[in-house]
Amino acid sequence: MMKCLLWSIPCAFLPCKMYPHHDASRKHSKLSNSRLANPLLQLLCPSPGFFYFWFLQLSTMGLNGKPLHLHSRNKVQHPLAVSRHAFGDLSNVSPVVFLYLLKECYVYGTCKATAKFRVLQQQVFESLCNDPRPGAAIFVAQCLYVLPIFESHCDGFSHLIISALRRFLKVGNGMKGILKAKLLAAKLFLAIVDGTLVHEERILVKILELFDVSLSNIEKAMFDTDEKDQTCQEMAKVLVEQYILRLVESQSYMTAVSLLEHFSIRESGESFLLKMMESQQYRAAEKWATFMGKPILCTLVQEYVDRKLPKHAFDVIRQHNLRKEFPEIYHQYKESKLKKLAEQGCWDVAEARVKDDPQLLEYLVYLAMEAGYMEKVEELCERYSLEGFINAKALEANFPKDRYLQL
């Protein structure tokens, strides 16, 4: 119990030891110097003096108010000392204690939430290098099981430890126990689906992506078997599809699309796309169409055109190289943008955007002619060898010089 009390103090990040027989002023000075030398401590702890009293009391007194001593095998009495934070060595720290320490650090911090989040994310990343047992990936999966009991901190801390583990895995670490971690993540998915645990939908998607959970992992989590059984595989797939259907019914389209993409389920078609379009879930619709391929992408472009959303249609055409399939739509949008630039007098910008497209260059020449900008017409014709236009100088010479009304 005393160990838990000590762990609950965020200022245990101090690298120094404090013994009860030392002078109080020296302790306070050492505490202050350590705080100045440790950026994490500066950011997360309000002031060293706030915790000094508790360090002094806990290092000298037991729970019954009497001096506390530790007895070794040689029966030599040693005073209790606070030396370092438990994040420095996770080999014997449980997920619950780890998360409680994380919460205490966050709560006692005096900076803004974003700054605290960044520092804690760095601290968690470094902590994952300190040998959490039975492995970093398994340890994080266990933390995700426990996090719902922290209620208001659940979502934020979930994002924090997931991002820290993702960064940890990117540098080539954490492969120890990865198969067991996948199984734990699959069981976590099942617990969230049946309502046993409560996690935000975005967290659920990140868990599946981080641990790369597949249908086979979910099958194993459901039936606890390594043998391949067609019936078990179908049941696992049906469970996932039913959950996705629930998401669609609640209009959580982006999460539904993310799960369909993650598990490579392609059974839904245009009807699903149209449902998202009717609900104006355009980002989810584009994500789904991208996953399904060119036929659904073409349907999406046509839907945008029918709904008079030319910019959305043009973006899809440009991003997915559908210019040959929709040449008119592509050029109509580009021409509308050129016209706006011409009206603003941004001729050089307009030219830079269309210099590789002869058809759009000709349109730009026509815009210059309509605006009476004959110098630009001649310049464009000479620079890009455009033929078939009226000689600009001759046209300009035919303009009447006397523009006054003869009465």
From TrEMBL:
InterPro entries: Exonuclease_MUT-7-like
PANTHER family per record: 3'-5' EXONUCLEASE DOMAIN-CONTAINING PROTEIN (PTHR47765), EXONUCLEASE MUT-7 HOMOLOG (PTHR47765:SF2)
Name the record gives this protein: Uncharacterized protein
Organism: Nicotiana tabacum
